[in-house]
Amino acid sequence: MNEPPMFKFRLYVAGDTQNSMQALANLTKICQTYLVHSHEIEVLDVFKEPDLTLKEGVFMTPTLVKLSPSPMIKIVGTLSQTQIILQALGLDTPSA
Q: What is the pLDDT of residues 44-76, one digit of tens each?
């Protein structure tokens, strides 16, 4: 039996601002619901890692980067529209 692909995410946040914390909470909920045991989340604070942030082309926060599986995608915002996020990640489920 094939194992599901491992989804690797990097979430760029701006400290503990409300939008950043909301994005992290929403991403965590999505992963715990749809990617059980098949995800990794790395959180980078743009204030602590400004050089990497600019090198990666991140100019707004919060920004989610799906590193794998390919293709890499970037999503800006609080990730509150779950169905749209699932579609962008290729995890869209049938509507109820």
A: 999 999 999 999 999 999 999 999 999 999 999
- First-to-last C-alpha distance (Å) of the chain: 28
Angle at 50 between CA 59 and CA 75, to 5 degrees: 35
Q: Give the separation between CA 84 and CA 76, rounded to whole angstroms.
A: 12
Check: pTM over 0.70? Answer yes or no: yes
Integer Cα distance of 21 and 58 in angstroms:
17
Q: Which residue bears the tokens 């743009």?
A: 46
Measured distance CA(49)–CA(60) in Å, rounded: 14
- How many CB atoms within 10 Å of residue 9? 20
Long-range contacts of 86-89 (CB under 8 A, 24+ apart): 86/30, 86/34, 89/7
| Number of neighbours of residue 63 by Cβ within 10 angstroms | 23
